[in-house]
Design a protein that fits this description.
With 694 residues, the protein is of the alpha/beta class. It folds into 5 domains: 203 residues, Rossmann fold; 140 residues, 3-Layer(aba) Sandwich (Rossmann fold), CATH 3.40.50.300; 72 residues, Orthogonal Bundle (Arc Repressor Mutant, subunit A); 49 residues, no CATH class; 113 residues, no CATH class. 38% of the residues lie in helices and 19% in strands. The protein contains 25 helices and 27 strands. The protein has an 8-stranded mixed β-sheet. The chain has a 6-stranded parallel β-sheet with strand order 9-14-13-10-12-11, with helices on both faces. Strand 23 and strand 24 form a beta hairpin. Helix 1 runs antiparallel to helix 3, helix 6 packs parallel to helix 8 and helix 10 packs across helix 11. The longest helix is centred in the N-terminal third of the chain and has 17 residues. The radius of gyration is 26 Å and the shape is globular.
Length: 694
């Protein structure tokens, strides 16, 4: 029988009634989820994963959903914006079934309603708050959905969610059914070992793929992109929807402003990033979805499945950091066809053109075959946070250490010794207090201070102080406090794709007005650029040795330049380490990725510097002298800066923080391969390729 007929008839009609047949992922997910076990749905963007997960769960727990006074199904999404979008998408179908659906996050709480939602869409942080403050509302939960599971995999927030599901089961006294979804997972077993160690899972795959039509443009200015968008518009019947991805908020603002000023789209150019206010982001999403001809410049905030209508063209401004981000971004476009059209642009102000060109070409090859994925990481920061969250949830009572050991013991690295080390450190930092007699702990002043600061449930990095920016009564977003040293009344800066002049400036408020006056000030944002996936960098080395670098680079003159710049490496052995002299330095093309290269630079000392593909040093580099193991290089590994750590990473014992930093380094095989390759490599001096920046 058709798989939709396995569902309750009313549920099938509500979710799939308008469709003659189910998508492959939906057809495969229905029987798997109805069977009652955990499931992970691996399918591309636009394949109906949301309905594939929610419809069979609604059908399976229909009687509970119709009678329960509190949530039965929890739908966890990684961002508030995606929570809101999922709510808009699911509400019509669930309304037809008379099933209450609602949202709970920091800006909206439908649990305050008299008739509480039985399908609750929320974030990991809000689930943490509920388990701490209103856990009685979660007693009836039967199932949890994890959307965009790859985004939280091997992150602090991901482990937080995994432990919260364990806490939920402990509180309710029942196993919950978990369904996860992702468009980009290379190793589902590793992913499930992270979220649900030792649990069995059924894997649902949609093997269908869309072809990728791509063009790579080198050295373009924003004005050239604007001209090309105008040129392409007639080919789409005068209506072009383009989604442009930039890799930083600063670039997003500047590029959106340039496209507004240099293209025919004008005010139909929008910006979307995390420093914009909720109202501004929702406004962008609404208008961009409604217009049939518009441009939106976004950071990773629109990588997720937020509904912004049909996209004709995806533009990547700057190289992709890895295959997962690449697939997420191009997956937003051309959902009506079997082909994705992507324009890959290398900006004219990019200082490392070679890495960009190779990055684009390599990722296009990577997505055609299975990609290596790291094993589940040993993360401690989120476990430390959960210990504090448990103490705050105890309402001042003591919590037995053995209960915490039992909770965390499902993860092999969170053993008895690690748990006791974390508790001891939290006691010494004044966050917890020990019971005078029993092996137990309770909250101290530090825990309540974290609660007052609303960070006790958070595993986001420590952020700089932010100040709201208003245009009249409209909240535009936030500027980070570091900008106050360069702002003054009358200063003109770019924000949200527009130019604004500062009208007034206080420590807690900036008021602005739109202007056409020349720019005087550049806004700064904290945070480092995302590193390249080290497997991408490894593949770059294979690509330059193959000699196929310029295969699909346009225009021809640029392609010829790149071919000339890389021809010196063609035919080299894999275990060759090319280098050239630049003044008093040598530049060694290690192709090791930024983490390994920085570690090697630290090992070399004397001011050695690293990029993704090279190490520059005034000290002679003998690769045979490199330590033989990753562990031996460990003391030179860069520890994340305080501002990119969470509060709870900063509260870890130093030994556990170091273990955490070392873990992904040790577990991703590409680092071992790169180290072995470099140690066995022969130094070969080459003439510096002059056509591209390295």
């Amino acid at each position: 029988m058709p798989r939709s007929e396995l569902l309750d008839r009313s549920v099938a009609q509500a979710f799939f009634g308008a469709f003659k047949e189910l998508h492959p992922a939906q057809a495969a997910a229905v029987p798997a989820i109805l069977a009652g076990g955990d499931a992970i749905i691996l399918a591309g963007t636009g394949s109906g994963k949301t309905e594939a997960a929610i419809a069979p769960l609604v059908s399976k727990y229909l009687s509970e959903l119709q009678t329960s006074p509190s949530p039965v199904i929890l739908y966890i999404a990684p961002t508030r914006a995606l929570v809101n979008d999922i709510f808009r998408r699911l509400e019509p179908a669930l309304d037809r079934l008379s099933i209450r659906v609602g949202v709970r996050h920091g800006e909206l709480n439908h649990l305050d309603r008299v008739n509480k939602p039985v399908v609750l869409i929320t974030t990991p942080e809000s689930l943490d708050v509920m388990l701490s403050k209103r856990r009685e509302l979660l007693l009836e939960v039967r199932a949890v959905i994890i959307d965009e599971a790859h985004l939280l995999y091997n992150t602090q927030r991901g482990l937080q969610l995994a432990i919260l599901i364990e806490r939920l089961q402990s509180w309710s006294g029942r196993e919950v059914q978990v369904a996860a979804m992702s468009a980009t997972v290379a190793d589902y077993e590793a992913l499930w070992a992270f979220y649900r160690p030792s649990a069995q899972v059924v894997v649902v795959r949609d093997q269908s793929q869309r072809s990728i039509e791509r063009v790579i443009r080198i050295g373009w200015s924003p004005a050239q992109l604007a001209s090309d968008l105008d040129r392409l518009t007639p080919a789409t019947g005068g209506h072009l929807k383009a989604l442009v991805f930039a890799d930083s908020r600063k670039t997003c603002d500047k590029l959106a402003a340039a496209l507004r000023e240099n293209s025919s789209f004008g005010d139909r150019v929008f910006a979307h990033h995390s420093s914009l206010s909720k109202q501004e982001r929702l406004r962008t999403e609404k208008f961009f979805a409604e217009f049939n001809s518009a441009v939106c410049v976004a950071t990773s905030t629109l990588e997720l499945g937020i509904d912004i209508g049909d996209i004709d063209l995806v533009v990547l401004w700057g190289h992709p950091v890895g295959w997962e981000s690449f697939l997420q971004r191009i997956g937003r476009g051309n959902r009506r066809t079997s082909k994705t059209v992507v324009l890959c642009v290398i900006p004219d102000d990019e200082s490392h053109l070679a890495a960009h060109v190779l990055g684009f070409q390599t990722v296009l090859e990577q997505v055609a075959y299975a990609v290596e994925s790291p094993a589940a990481s040993d993360i401690f920061g989120a476990a430390c946070q959960q210990i504090v969250s448990l103490s705050v949830a105890s309402s001042g009572k003591f919590t037995a250490i053995r209960d915490v050991e039992s909770l965390l013991g499902r993860w092999p690295h969170l053993d008895r010794e690690a748990t006791r080390q974390m508790v001891e450190e939290l006691v010494s930092e004044g966050v917890l207090v020990k019971h005078p007699v029993k092996s137990a702990f309770g909250p101290s002043e530090g825990a309540y201070a974290l609660e007052d600061d609303l960070v006790v449930w958070s595993n986001f990095p420590v952020a700089a102080r932010e100040v709201p920016v208003y245009e009249g009564s409209h909240h535009l977003g936030h500027l980070q406090g570091q900008n106050f040293a360069r702002l003054e009344v009358g200063a003109v800066f770019t924000f949200a794709g527009n130019r604004y002049v500062v009208l007034s400036l206080r420590r807690d408020l900036v008021t602005v007005a739109r202007t056409t006056r020349p720019l005087t000030t550049e806004i700064k944002y904290s945070g480092a650029a995302a590193p390249l996936d080290p497997t991408l960098v490894e593949s770059m080395w294979q690509l330059v040795r193959s000699g196929d670098v310029a295969a699909d680079v346009l225009p021809t003159s640029a392609g010829s330049a790149i071919a000339g710049a890389t021809s010196v490496f063609r035919g080299m052995s894999e275990r060759t380490l090319p280098y050239w002299s630049e003044g008093t330095d040598n530049c060694y093309l290690t192709f090791g990725g930024i983490l390994l290269n920085t570690t090697i630079a630290n090992w070399l000392g004397d001011g050695a510097r690293a990029t993704e593909i090279s190490v520059r040093s005034g000290t002679a580099f003998d690769p045979a002298r490199l330590p033989a193991t990753i562990d031996a290089l460990g003391p030179h590994l860069p520890i994340p800066r305080d501002e990119v750590q969470t509060v709870f990473q900063q509260l870890l014992p130093p030994t556990l923080l170091h273990r955490e930093a070392m873990d992904s380094w040790v577990k991703l095989p590409v680092y071992r391969r790169a180290l072995d390759r470099l140690r066995a490599s022969r130094l070969v001096e080459v003439v510096r390729p002059t056509s591209l920046a390295w």
